[in-house]
Design brief:
Number of helices: 10
Bound molecules: 3-methyl-2-oxobutanoic acid
Helix content: 25-40%
CATH superfamily of the largest domain: Phosphoenolpyruvate-binding domains
Shape: globular
Strand content: 5-15%
CATH class of the largest domain: Alpha Beta
Amino acid sequence: MKRSIKSVFNKKNKKKIICLTSYSYNYTKIIDDLVDVVLVGDSMSNVLYGMDSTRTIDDQIMINHATAVKKAAEKSLVFFDLPYNKDFSESNTVKRVLSVMKKTSCDGVKIEGNTELEDVIKYLKKKNVPVMAHLGLQPQKFSSTKKFKIYGKKKEDLNKIISDSLCLEKAGAVSILLEGMLTKIAKQVTTVLAIPTIGIGASEFCDGQILVSEDMLGMYGNNHPKFVKRYEDLSKNIKIAVKKYAKEVNNSKFPNKKFRYD
Ligand code: KIV
């Protein structure tokens, strides 16, 4: 059965919320019944398109991928990660979100930003668009992944994130993603909020977790952030298979009579 926004985000204090990224039909088919939320993340700019920043991907590319993901997701909720745009005015953000929702039929949208999103979230709630806010390390604020900084080291950070998250909860966010921050901060935010937090590099104290699938499957680069656990080494397995294939083609062992039309 298709999960509902309520059934997933009401899991706070009962069960963890399981989330992963996906950019494709095929991969979504594999993970669909194993996760609560599939995020069509703007991390595709790094992982799929080899860009150094998430600022360079545009709405249309993300819409193409989200359409494929949505087609495959029979059970999980699909959230669209709103990419960077120079014009982050309330009217333009709302216009873009409504257009994305119409074109992809996604179940919700994730938006990076702080209290400037208050009215956007209020408006989208009225339009029945569930919003996951994104606080802490916000990749769209950086021109390169090499410049990322963990959130929470400044004295004022804790109070700011608590008041921002309460403001966005009040505005109507269904959840808040917490990225790259000190454990004590993620723990406090999770405690003060009634809505669930989804963590990435934000400790086990969050209500749910998300990882970039290619990171946890060992499909993207050799250097990964400290918070990534590699559950598989698919790059290694793919290399073994491709080497075997190349060897068999070179030795005329593949194809053979089992694989041909006589
Ligand atoms: O784009 C992305 O993959 C993200 C992560 C935080 C999951 O936003």
